[in-house]
Hints:
Layout: H1 4-34, H2 37-58, H3 64-67, E1 96-97, E2 104-110, E3 116-123, E4 133-141, H4 143-149, E5 151-155, E6 164-168, H5 175-182, E7 197-200, E8 206-210, H6 212-218, E9 220-224, E10 230-234
Antiparallel strand pairs: 1-2, 2-3, 3-4, 5-6, 6-8, 7-8, 9-10
Amino acid sequence: xxxKIPLVLGLSAVLLVTSCAASVETAPNAKDATTSVxxxxxxxESKTQSASPSTSAExxxxxxxxxxxxxxxAQSDTDLPPEEVKDASIKKETFRALAPLSxxxxxxxxxxSGDLCLVAxxxxxxxxxxxxxxxxxxxxxxxxxAKENGxxxxxxxxxxxxxxxLAMLPPEITEDAVRSVLLxxxxxxxxxxxxxxxxxxxxxxxxxxxxxxxAKDLGEITFPRKNGADFVLNLG
Length: 236
């Protein structure tokens, strides 16, 4: 009877050693399973990176030519300003005449930084002989800003020289919309020399001009945009 007890103990020891060995062998497999997680993360990063170029491609940089289409054409004799412009940053070959006005001689141009510039002389617009000019005055804006808010400038009267408040309106404001607004101003009309003058280029870019005293009286003018929103032209 006593000889059977060691045999049972021996079998138990063998089973315990075998179980431990099985546990040790499964540990590396569990470790290998965790190393596959970064692979999934790498795939996610790759998808994110590949989507970035398409997002940036959707944005389009606005240039001066987008606002003043005549900049895409060759410069003509009518595009040459009445007097020399001494600002060396303005590219002379980019001068383009805008709508003719009795209150101002106005031109679009581009500077060395790619900004769109409004270059203008105030004009007496007497109609009898050569007009008296005062200027030039230059105002430049980033094309994105000019597309949204246009470009405005003011030339103060100087002794016997005329002054003007001038604005090249945003390209999305139509001539018909401007006419509808300005003809409601008391005393305004399209004949002779109205208190508030407006003209459009062949491309539909509208300019508004008036004497500084008129601008002071009006304060501001609101024009409707094509999208239905309002654009407020500050005349101060």
